[in-house]
């Protein structure tokens, strides 16, 4: 949740604009996601949006009146007050028409007036056909808005209206809510400082099969890795996400997804894609061991040998990536640690950073049940130059944002080749 100045409301005030596109129905899930996470939401649709979703639906879900024009409740001056008082403005979906109006300062209804008066972070989430998204006029409008500090999210790829598929689909509601929470936590725009960089992120937990039914695994949900990939894409990077087992997570918009199962499969996928990457982030929970023997049929309970299952060690993927990295390539690792009688979590993390040789290491204390499976995270960010930074409790997208801030800072402070080149 965002921090507020003394006297400010405890619930962040969000204006949710809704454009007139078929994806307007998804705004209901965005609205629900924002209200259920403690936000005070006022919905401001366009007249066209109300052709897809009625005002009564938005009013029932938000508990607030819905207006579209500037001549309703005139004494309250809503066309000025809404933007002035908002902590965040989100427009989902943002049509090509709305993008053009926002870029050129047109204000012919309540929503576009609100965009002109807003002095808080603004998140526009486009949804349109691929041809419209790729049109030079739209691309110019997006570039102009981003140059002014407006966050224009990358659209997803997939099914559009009719039989068409392609880039331009509205991201899923959970992604939009996550980005909104991130902007509130940051208190400013999301920079496009990763443009031109190729990023590879691993996520999830590997599963090492014993037979067709049983496996060795871990509790990793993949949420942190997905958040890292999602934030990188929204900051302009070209992102590949190598995902082991995850908890039915939504593919991040603008991210290429590669699915793997075992540690060896993840290792091969990471090495293959590392050759062209500028930044590698190993956030997957890779199994340290795998069974020596893979049985092709299900082992019956009565046939189980009471002796321990024989295991062999898996390769250390992070250490291999560090050893093989190109000049100027940044490598980030993760350490899920618990303290013991002699050594604390942070000391274990420091030793791991020295042993692995990566540029940055995120250390999570998982002894108390934190980090794995939950929506939020916290820990420490250790750097190879000896600096250490605590990461306060917050969303996994916020941790991802802090991580990318550190990556950008580290790359800018050292001489690195032009992105994508050796």
TrEMBL record:
<comment type="pathway">
    <text>Cofactor biosynthesis; coenzyme A biosynthesis; CoA from (R)-pantothenate: step 3/5.</text>
</comment>
<feature type="domain" description="Flavoprotein">
    <location>
        <begin position="13"/>
        <end position="178"/>
    </location>
</feature>
<keyword id="KW-0456">Lyase</keyword>
<feature type="binding site">
    <location>
        <position position="352"/>
    </location>
    <ligand>
        <name>CTP</name>
    </ligand>
</feature>
<dbReference type="GO" id="GO:0071513">
    <property type="term" value="C:phosphopantothenoylcysteine decarboxylase complex"/>
</dbReference>
<keyword id="KW-0436">Ligase</keyword>
<comment type="pathway">
    <text>Cofactor biosynthesis; coenzyme A biosynthesis; CoA from (R)-pantothenate: step 2/5.</text>
</comment>
<feature type="region of interest" description="Phosphopantothenoylcysteine decarboxylase">
    <location>
        <begin position="1"/>
        <end position="198"/>
    </location>
</feature>
<keyword id="KW-0288">FMN</keyword>
<comment type="similarity">
    <text>In the C-terminal section; belongs to the PPC synthetase family.</text>
</comment>
<feature type="binding site">
    <location>
        <begin position="315"/>
        <end position="318"/>
    </location>
    <ligand>
        <name>CTP</name>
    </ligand>
</feature>
<feature type="binding site">
    <location>
        <position position="334"/>
    </location>
    <ligand>
        <name>CTP</name>
    </ligand>
</feature>
<dbReference type="InterPro" id="IPR036551">
    <property type="entry name" value="Flavin_trans-like"/>
</dbReference>
<dbReference type="InterPro" id="IPR007085">
    <property type="entry name" value="DNA/pantothenate-metab_flavo_C"/>
</dbReference>
<feature type="binding site">
    <location>
        <position position="356"/>
    </location>
    <ligand>
        <name>CTP</name>
    </ligand>
</feature>
<keyword id="KW-0511">Multifunctional enzyme</keyword>
<dbReference type="Pfam" id="PF04127">
    <property type="entry name" value="DFP"/>
</dbReference>
<keyword id="KW-0210">Decarboxylase</keyword>
<feature type="region of interest" description="Phosphopantothenate--cysteine ligase">
    <location>
        <begin position="199"/>
        <end position="422"/>
    </location>
</feature>
<dbReference type="GO" id="GO:0004632">
    <property type="term" value="F:phosphopantothenate--cysteine ligase activity"/>
</dbReference>
<feature type="binding site">
    <location>
        <position position="298"/>
    </location>
    <ligand>
        <name>CTP</name>
    </ligand>
</feature>
<comment type="function">
    <text>Catalyzes two sequential steps in the biosynthesis of coenzyme A. In the first step cysteine is conjugated to 4'-phosphopantothenate to form 4-phosphopantothenoylcysteine. In the second step the latter compound is decarboxylated to form 4'-phosphopantotheine.</text>
</comment>
<dbReference type="GO" id="GO:0010181">
    <property type="term" value="F:FMN binding"/>
</dbReference>
<feature type="domain" description="DNA/pantothenate metabolism flavoprotein C-terminal">
    <location>
        <begin position="194"/>
        <end position="408"/>
    </location>
</feature>
<dbReference type="InterPro" id="IPR003382">
    <property type="entry name" value="Flavoprotein"/>
</dbReference>
<dbReference type="GO" id="GO:0004633">
    <property type="term" value="F:phosphopantothenoylcysteine decarboxylase activity"/>
</dbReference>
<keyword id="KW-0479">Metal-binding</keyword>
<protein>
    <recommendedName>
        <fullName>Coenzyme A biosynthesis bifunctional protein CoaBC</fullName>
        <ecNumber>4.1.1.36</ecNumber>
        <ecNumber>6.3.2.5</ecNumber>
    </recommendedName>
</protein>
<dbReference type="InterPro" id="IPR005252">
    <property type="entry name" value="CoaBC"/>
</dbReference>
<dbReference type="GO" id="GO:0046872">
    <property type="term" value="F:metal ion binding"/>
</dbReference>
<dbReference type="InterPro" id="IPR035929">
    <property type="entry name" value="CoaB-like_sf"/>
</dbReference>
<dbReference type="GO" id="GO:0015937">
    <property type="term" value="P:coenzyme A biosynthetic process"/>
</dbReference>
<keyword id="KW-0285">Flavoprotein</keyword>
<comment type="function">
    <text>Catalyzes two steps in the biosynthesis of coenzyme A. In the first step cysteine is conjugated to 4'-phosphopantothenate to form 4-phosphopantothenoylcysteine, in the latter compound is decarboxylated to form 4'-phosphopantotheine.</text>
</comment>
<comment type="similarity">
    <text>In the N-terminal section; belongs to the HFCD (homo-oligomeric flavin containing Cys decarboxylase) superfamily.</text>
</comment>
<keyword id="KW-0460">Magnesium</keyword>
<dbReference type="Pfam" id="PF02441">
    <property type="entry name" value="Flavoprotein"/>
</dbReference>
<dbReference type="GO" id="GO:0015941">
    <property type="term" value="P:pantothenate catabolic process"/>
</dbReference>
<feature type="binding site">
    <location>
        <position position="288"/>
    </location>
    <ligand>
        <name>CTP</name>
    </ligand>
</feature>
């Amino acid at each position: 949740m965002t921090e507020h100045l003394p006297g400010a409301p405890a619930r962040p005030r969000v204006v949710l604009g809704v454009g007139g596109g078929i994806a307007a129905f998804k705004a209901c899930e965005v609205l629900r996601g924002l209200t259920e996470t403690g936000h005070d939401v006022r919905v401001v649709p366009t007249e066209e949006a109300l052709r897809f979703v009625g005002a009564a639906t938005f009013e029932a879900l938000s508990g607030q009146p819905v207006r579209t024009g500037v001549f309703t409740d005139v004494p309250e001056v809503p066309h000025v007050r809404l933007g002035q008082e908002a902590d965040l403005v989100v427009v989902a979906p943002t049509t090509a028409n709305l993008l053009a109006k926002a870029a050129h300062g047109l204000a012919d209804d309540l929503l576009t007036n609100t965009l002109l008066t807003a002095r808080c972070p603004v998140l526009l989430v486009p949804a349109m056909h691929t041809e419209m998204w790729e049109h030079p006029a739209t691309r110019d409008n997006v570039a102009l808005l981003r140059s002014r500090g407006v966050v224009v999210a990358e659209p997803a790829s997939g099914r559009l209206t009719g039989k068409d598929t392609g880039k331009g689909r509205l991201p899923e509601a959970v992604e939009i809510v996550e980005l909104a929470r991130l902007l509130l936590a940051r208190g400013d725009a999301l920079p496009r400082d990763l443009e031109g960089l190729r990023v590879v992120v691993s996520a999830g937990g590997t599963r090492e099969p014993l037979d067709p039914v049983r496996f060795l695994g871990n509790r990793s949900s993949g949420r942190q890795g997905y958040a890292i990939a999602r934030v990188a894409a929204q900051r302009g990077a070209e992102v590949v996400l190598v995902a082991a087992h995850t908890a039915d997570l939504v593919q991040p918009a603008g991210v290429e997804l590669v699915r793997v199962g075992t540690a060896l499969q993840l290792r091969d996928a990471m090495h293959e894609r590392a050759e062209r990457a500028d930044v590698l982030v190993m956030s997957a929970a890779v199994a340290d061991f795998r069974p020596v023997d893979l049985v092709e049929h299900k082992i019956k309970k009565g046939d189980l040998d009471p002796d321990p299952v024989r295991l062999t060690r898996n390769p250390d993927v992070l250490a291999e990536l560090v050893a093989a990295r190109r000049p100027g390539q940044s490598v980030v690792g993760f350490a899920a640690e618990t303290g013991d009688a002699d050594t604390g979590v942070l000391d274990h993390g420091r030793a791991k950073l020295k042993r692995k040789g990566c540029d940055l290491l995120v250390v999570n204390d998982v002894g108390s049940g934190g980090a794995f499976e939950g929506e939020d995270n916290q820990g420490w960010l250790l750097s190879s130059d000896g600096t250490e930074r605590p990461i306060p409790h917050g969303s996994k997208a916020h941790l991802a944002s802090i991580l990318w801030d550190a990556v950008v800072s580290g790359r800018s402070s050292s001489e690195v080749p032009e992105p994508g080149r050796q």
